[in-house]
Every structure is written in structure tokens, then in C-alpha cells.
From TrEMBL:
It comes from Endosaccharibacter trunci. This is Anhydro-N-acetylmuramic acid kinase. It is an enzyme of class 2 (transferase). Its EC number is 2.7.1.170. Belongs to the anhydro-N-acetylmuramic acid kinase family. The gene is anmK.
Length: 352
């Protein structure tokens, strides 16, 4: 087993998650420490700004290069703060654009600089080979969920609620089916920021004080994304016009409607069998309004992944440690059932 550090900066733009994983790229041998380094507010604001401009940006744009350097140095700081001896780093980078239908997915971050700063080899650019081969380039976490869940009863669903939601279904025979489900917390974060000045509806306080506007929810659910079968993936900004549609609502009712939107989107995903259990990871598991809405719309037990001994905050960082070792070994990262690619695909690049 190798000691690998995974680094993930997700769509919620809150910071960098770092975690140590012991793995041979097939099995998980053990977990080490995990932590999050929040982005400095200025960097977060600059990244947020970049999302709206990413489609027209050139890779050598001076402002972009400056941000990429600052972002990479936060990742190097996360590696140092983790303080775990390691042999390899998996560096996801910050997604600023995801349009697989145009053959584009873009994660920024300077792997050469990170390798130099840490003195370790770095695996990076996990998604573009899949997109180049006609896949969605996301989600990539299913193969890691399957390795973690090897001993759990099936069929099983693992749901990650970050900025965007994504789901892994593991069938009775181990078949994997995955997709992004719709919004996770990103819309709620933006709504909360607009109304409270804080970019998060902490503990679902706003949403729990409001009522769902089912009529507006139905219009949100009319989005063509929900009629597409899995596998399918999303750009963080895909549902951004939802904020205009709910603009007529009070802060509380808007938040309640967005929490219900996240849950209804999950419930709208058609799966080959009914999961015996739903395990939820990512920051959304801390929002009771979302968890209650999930339970009522799914009609099934919904638990945090902690109930099976996983760390719901560290899972994605651990995933990119696992995938880094798979990159190093030339093992596949994606499969027809997870990204829609034809045949299983290797991916990622290495430096250092
Ligand atoms: N106590 C809490 N109450 C409500 N929401 C919370 C709480 N803690 C975290 N969150 C939500 O979780 C989000 C962060 O989740 P997470 O770190 O899983 O996202 P991410 O990894 O950046 O995104 P993605 O998985 O889409 O890449 C925050 O944006 C916030 O909205
Ligand atoms: C393009 C991109 O960065 N997608 C992320 C994002 O965050 C959640 C969801 O959207 C998922 O598709 C993916 O991350 C996870 C880790 C994945 O690839 O499995």
C-alpha cells in the first residue's frame, strides 16, 4: 500500500480539502489525517468571478495565471499543514468550466509548481482524457465509492452533496451507475449570501423556517437535464437562473424551495433498482432541511456516511488520492456506467 495525499477543491469554492489515504489503487488500506484550508476571501471572490468568464478565457491570460499560482500555493500549504509523510499527491485542481458536450472541462492549478513546492510526484488532469473520449468527465468518484463499499449490502446509493450533487449507485452484482443529480448547495449558498451576507444556510436555519413553493419547484424540475438518463454531469452554473425564478419569494421560502429542489433532483434520478440504503457525504449532509426533504421525497432511509465509518468531509480528497495511485498504475478511472464513455478509460497525467 502506498501513502497518497489527495487534494480536492470542490464547486462550492470554499477551500481545499486534503487527506491521506493508504491504497494500492484497488483497495483502501487505511485513512490518515484530513483537513480543509479555506480559500482566503479575496481568492474565493476572484475564483467566483472567473466562473462567469471562463468560457472566453485563454489559458495564458495573465490574470488567470496569477490566480492559478495563488490557488496552487494554497494547495501546497494544505500538504504542509497535513503533515503526513507521503509518496504521491493527487491534485484535482479547481474546476472553472465543465462543458463535456463541447469537449471541454477545465481544472486550473499548476501541477509542476505543486510538485516543486512539496518535493513529491503529482497526478493531475483527471478528467480530460474521459471527455476527449466522449465521456462526461464526471463523476469520477464511483470507483472509489465501490472500493469503500465492498463489504456493504447492495443495492446501495452514495450521494455527495457539495456545490453540485452527484450519485453513485452500486447494484447487487456490483454494477456501477453514476451521474450528477442537480444542484447541491451552490444555489442555497448564493441565495443565503444575497439575503444574509453569509454564503451558507448554516444548519438549514433559513430553509427550516420557510415553506416550499411547489409551483416554482415544478418549473425548476422542468429543466431538460432531469429527463436525460444517467450518466450525465453538470457545470456548477447550470441551474443559476433558478435564483431569478425564486426571486419573488421571501428569504426563508426561497431557501426551503432550494433545499427541496436539491432533494427532488435526487429523487428524479432513475435507478435500475431501489437502494436499500442512501449514504450521504459532502457539506449538504449537515443541512437538516435537505436531509429531511431527501427522506420524504425518496421514501427511504437517508444517513450520513459516518454511519458506516467514512468521513463525509474527506471523501472527495481521499478519492483523488485513490485515483492518483490508479493514474500511476495505469488503471481505469472511468467506465461506461459512470461517465458514459465507451469502454473503461485510463486518464490523468503525472509530473515529478
Ligand atoms: N452546517 C452546515 N449547514 C448547512 N450547509 C452546510 C454546513 N456545512 C457545510 N454546508 C454546505 O456544504 C457546502 C460545502 O460542501 P462540500 O465541501 O462537500 O462541497 P465541495 O466539495 O466544494 O463541492 P463538490 O462536491 O460539488 O465539488 C457549503 O457550500 C455549504 O453550503
Ligand atoms: C467537473 C467537476 O469538477 N465536477 C465535480 C463537481 O463536484 C461534484 C460533481 O460536480 C462531480 O461531478 C465532480 O466531482 C466529484 C468529486 C467526481 O468527479 O466524482
Amino acid at each position: 500500500m502506498r501513502r497518497v495525499i489527495g487534494l480536492m477543491s470542490g464547486t462550492s469554492l470554499d477551500g481545499v480539502d486534503a487527506a491521506l489515504l493508504e491504497t494500492d489503487g484497488v483497495r483502501v488500506g487505511g485513512f490518515g489525517r484530513a483537513l480543509t484550508i479555506p480559500y482566503p476571501p479575496r481568492l474565493r471572490a476572484d475564483l467566483r468571478d472567473l466562473l462567469d468568464r471562463a468560457a472566453d478565457l485563454l489559458p495564458d491570460d495573465p490574470g488567470l495565471l496569477q490566480l492559478e499560482r495563488a490557488l496552487t500555493l494554497v494547495h501546497a500549504e494544505a500538504v504542509r499543514a497535513l503533515g503526513e509523510p507521503a509518496e504521491l499527491i493527487g491534485f484535482h485542481g479547481q474546476t472553472i468550466l465543465h462543458r463535456p458536450e463541447e469537449g471541454r472541462t477545465w481544472q486550473i492549478g499548476d501541477a509542476v509548481l505543486l510538485s516543486r513546492e512539496t518535493g513529491l510526484p503529482v497526478a493531475f488532469d483527471f478528467r480530460s482524457a474521459d471527455v476527449a473520449a466522449g465521456g462526461q468527465g464526471a463523476p469520477l468518484v464511483p470507483v472509489f465509492h465501490a472500493a469503500l463499499a465492498a463489504a456493504l449490502p447492495r443495492p446501495l446509493a452514495v450521494l455527495n452533496l457539495g456545490g453540485v450533487g452527484n450519485l453513485t449507485f452500486i447494484g447487487g452484482d456490483g454494477t456501477l451507475l453514476a451521474c450528477d443529480t442537480g444542484p447541491g448547495n451552490a444555489l442555497l449558498d448564493d441565495w443565503a449570501l444575497r439575503h444574509t451576507g453569509v454564503p451558507c444556510d448554516r444548519d438549514g436555519a433559513l430553509a427550516l423556517a420557510g415553506h416550499v413553493d411547489e409551483r416554482i419547484l415544478a418549473t425548476l424540475m422542468a429543466h431538460p437535464f432531469f429527463r436525460r438518463p444517467a450518466p450525465k454531469s453538470l457545470d456548477r452554473q447550470a441551474f443559476h437562473d433558478a435564483l431569478d425564478r425564486i426571486a419573488v419569494l421571501s428569504p426563508e421560502n426561497g431557501a426551503a424551495t432550494l433545499a427541496a429542489f436539491t432533494a427532488a433532483a435526487v429523487a428524479a434520478t432513475s435507478l435500475p433498482a431501489v437502494p436499500t440504503r442512501w449514504l450521504v457525504c459532502g457539506g449538504g449532509r449537515r443541512n437538516p432541511a435537505i436531509m429531511r426533504a431527501l427522506e420524504s421525497r425518496l421514501g427511504a432511509p437517508v444517513e450520513s456516511v459516518e454511519s458506516v465509518g467514512w468521513d463525509g468531509d474527506a471523501l472527495e480528497a481521499q478519492c483523488f488520492a485513490f485515483l492518483a495511485e490508479r493514474v500511476r498504475l495505469g488503471l481505469p478511472l472511468s467506465f461506461p456506467g459512470t461517465t458514459g464513455v465507451t469502454g473503461s478509460r485510463t486518464g490523468g497525467r503525472m509530473v515529478g
